[in-house]
Design goal:
This protein is mostly beta strands. Helices cover 10% and strands 42% of the residues. The chain has 2 helices and 16 strands. The strands form 2 sheets. Strands 1, 2, 3, 4, 6, 8, 9, 11, 12, 14 and 15 form an 11-stranded mixed β-sheet that branches. A 5-stranded parallel β-sheet has the order 5-7-10-13-16.
Length: 209
Amino acid sequence: IKDINMAQIPFSGLTIGTASSLTKLQGALSTDEDTPLKFNIAHATMTIFKVGSNSVVRDSFGNEAYNGADFHAAYAAARDALTNSRTWIETISIVGAFTSDAECALESNMIVDVSQANITAGTDRTGSAGSAIFAGSGVDRCYIRGEGILNSDDKTQHCVYFHADSTNVGVDKVNTRRSRNHNIYFNGCEVYSATNCNGQESGDDIITA
């Protein structure tokens, strides 16, 4: 690949052939137009899936980040395993049926793929006005997508909640059900979209404020 200037890549501290080396190298490769490095290595994907009653998290290399009974802890482990301070988008894919007893916090530069997921709220948190299955505060470039199911089961105010000047956020093709208030709520967001979503049994399917 003749466009790469290898002298500009800081290889110090890399252990070739490991997942951590890929993460460091990925951060070293820039998309800045002022440099000749025009690409990033394939973006990381963390996958959450079921083994028996456990929620298991593995990365694209098969490394395990969590194996336990708590879906919320599994989601947090998957999110924390994404590249720190990234300027590109990475993905968490959720596969299977799960119960979430706490809010799954969203962050910038991420996709949550729920196309093969069925996630139900497990604990009544309707006493909190911003309670949700997934929520993002002040995030940029964050998307939830796929034809899976987010079911509040009347235990959260929302299924998805973006707020506090979040921008470039969206929900696409997600089936949302039975939130106490709004299935999808964009509150004080700048650039946002909800496309091809199917809401059931809530006061409002999609609302902005």
